[in-house]
From TrEMBL:
This is Uncharacterized iron-regulated protein. It comes from the Bacteria. Residues 27-222 form the Haem-binding uptake Tiki superfamily ChaN domain. CDD domains: ChanN-like. It comes from Shimia gijangensis. Pfam families: Cofac_haem_bdg (PF04187).
């Protein structure tokens, strides 16, 4: 029998839910898998993730930011030393935000089994260029939806999201490939979550961006139906309309340069 997260339940609709207060983030339901979304560079999002991980004591944590090879290097002894862990993970070369944002999450559960679900850049590039997703993913691609084309409506919605996420600056012909890359990442994350659950018995906490935590087409939608799950998104501004998460939290905005500057010409 699986171990479940032993914390208080909150009421939420099956797919779309409303805002909860940051003080409620530790009062989450007992499930096999808990997705904790984030904006990668927001320190308050990582602070909330750290509190939840400490509160629920998962058996495994799956990081979108780590490859399986990196995750295998993590040990309880290494987690005690931030600089050593950062070096062993070669974090500074990874392209992710400063390791100081993520390190408290590791420290919150030093004995936990760590899993990584980052897709190699070459595989993402091949997917974006239109390579068959099953080639980059490997066996069981059909199980994770990678051999089935999206409906026209969902394809259009996903392309619109990619266009918006890239400052409305990507050429239209690039958008289908960007969707393929996202689908490959979602499927890889779901596969690693199921492996973590099978090997540890759970509960499993997932540290990932909000987009991968969507219940309609992100990694949660790809898990088998017998796996109980909840998804928490974190935003800086109140989103409009229904949100494809069980819960969502509003935090302060992170200090950052305009991310769209890179897309603007002088």
């Amino acid at each position: 029998m699986r171990h479940l997260i032993p914390v208080l339940a909150l009421v939420a609709s099956p797919l779309f839910a409303d805002q909860i207060d940051p003080s409620d983030v530790s009062a989450l339901p007992s499930v096999d898998v808990l997705f904790l979304g984030e904006l990668h560079d927001n320190p308050w999002h990582h602070e909330n993730q750290t509190k939840i991980v400490a509160a629920v004591s998962p058996k495994a944590v799956v990081y979108e930011m780590l490859t399986p090879e990196q995750a295998d290097r993590v040990s309880p002894d290494l987690v005690q030393d931030q600089e050593r862990l950062q070096d062993v993970l070669a974090w500074n070369a990874s392209g992710w935000p400063n390791f100081s944002l993520y390190y408290p999450i590791f420290r919150a559960a030093p004995l936990v089994s760590v899993y990584g679900a980052q897709v190699p850049r070459a595989d993402v590039r091949d997917a974006i260029m239109g390579q068959d997703l099953a080639i980059g993913f490997g066996p069981n691609a059909a199980q994770y939806g990678l051999t089935t084309p999206l409906s026209e409506q969902e394809q259009a919605q996903r392309e619109a999201k990619q266009f918006e996420a890239h400052c409305n600056a990507l050429p239209e012909e690039m958008l289908p490939g960007m969707v393929l890359g996202q689908r490959l990442r979602d499927a890889t994350l779901a596969r690693e979550i199921e492996r973590a659950l099978a090997e540890t018995g759970g509960p499993v906490v997932v540290i990932t961006g909000n987009g991968h935590a969507r219940k309609d087409w992100g990694a949660p939608a790809l898990l088998t139906s017998d796996i109980s799950q909840r998804s928490v998104a974190q935003f800086e501004l109140a989103p409009k309309g229904d949100q494809p998460f069980d819960y969502w939290v509003i935090t302060a905005e992170a200090a950052r340069e305009d991310p769209c500057l890179a897309f603007r010409k002088d």
